[in-house]
Amino acid sequence: MGLNKKSVDDINVNGKRVLCRCDFNVPLKEGQITDINRLTAALPTIKKLIADGGKVILCSHLGKPKGEVKPELSLAPVAVKLTELLGQEVKFAADPEVVGANARAAVAAMKDGEVILLENTRFRAEETKNGEAFSQDLASICDIFVNDAFGTAHRAHCSNVGVAALADTAVVGYLMQKEIDFLGNAVETPVRPFVAILGGAKVADKLNVISNLLDKCDTLIIGGGMAYTFLKAKGYEIGTSLVDNEKVDYCREMMEKAEKLGKKLLLPVDSTITKSFPSPIDGPVDITVVKADAIPADMMGLDIGTETATMYADAVKAAKTVVWNGPMGVFENPVLAKGTIAVAESLAETDATTIIGGGDSAAAVNQLGFGPKMTHISTGGGASLEFLEGKELPGVVAANDK
Length: 402
Ligand code: ATP
Known about the structure:
This protein has 14 helices and 17 strands. By secondary structure, the chain is α/β, with parallel strands linked by helices. Helix 8 (227-233) crosses helix 9. The chain folds into two domains: 8-177, 3-Layer(aba) Sandwich (Rossmann fold); 190-388, Rossmann fold (3-Layer(aba) Sandwich). Residues 200-201, 205, 224-225, 242, 301-302, 325-327, 329-330, 332, 358-361, 381 line the site of adenosine-5'-triphosphate (ATP).
């Protein structure tokens, strides 16, 4: 994709005010951060900027306050946690305008190597519209802009794109660099055989991903809810399984495309079915495994079957590069997680480069304890999907070229 972007290794930040856009969009429960992965992922870049003597001004969005000041979505708890993780004070620049009088005063008082955190960028209504005024505010408090927020790289907002255009220097951080290297290289210049695995709920969400990956990969594996639209396109009875009737023709086209390109498109040969969707989602369920073309009209498929799981695991064994996005079934329920676990295990066992494309699959892999066995787990669900679609991400494009 020709993504030769300047990074924090290509600049001198000594004595400079460096605005660093991070992804601190952490899950919160009653004011407590319940998962610090995104914070630890941001540390290498922050430490580098501190070590090089920059005045480090951190910013991020948190949740969806929609341009209003929502105290429960303040980044204040993140400053506390970051202070602990860095072993150095991260001063919180409380400010309802994000970059208002308070934040400006805090920046003006900074010494080299100090760190402050601005308030939630989405407290400003302009943020998600890439409005000029907020971009200018952000640019006015920095000499250098660093974007290390991969999770929002597929959006053009003030704090990643608007400010980058106004800042003299705009580079990417280590986290962003890593995502570009892994996702970009895996899809554009993969070591073959390249196996892509797609799952999750809906075909419609991943239309462009399916088509792009078919161009790039050697084998495309389909599981999860989206598989049933493909099975219907094959003329099978799929009972009450999840289906996107408007996309049946599309699935047929994709099967023809695979055939024409000489690519393998693997679909479930059996399915784990139930009478109804479990409620609660992790509640008790009665399952049966049937052949993919033998789903009774009143039953629904909620996981790939055992034979399919073995077939998919075998396909992974033959691969040198594997990219995976989307669970194979309703993995939130242990009884329906077997397909997802089998695929995760096969990725954990292979020597191939294994890349997890964020979102639910990343959560599943981490929950199942396979995280450390993967080559790369993307921190951005939506952004990694757009990468897999072959799209250029505005947040990446905005950084200076080398
Ligand atoms: P994200 O969109 O967050 O990146 P993802 O792309 O990994 O996540 P989604 O498309 O959101 O995945 O789908 C994940 C959901 O799909 C899970 O909640 C799972 O329970 C559900 N799911 C998987 N298989 C089925 C199925 N056969 N029927 C219904 N739902 C399913």
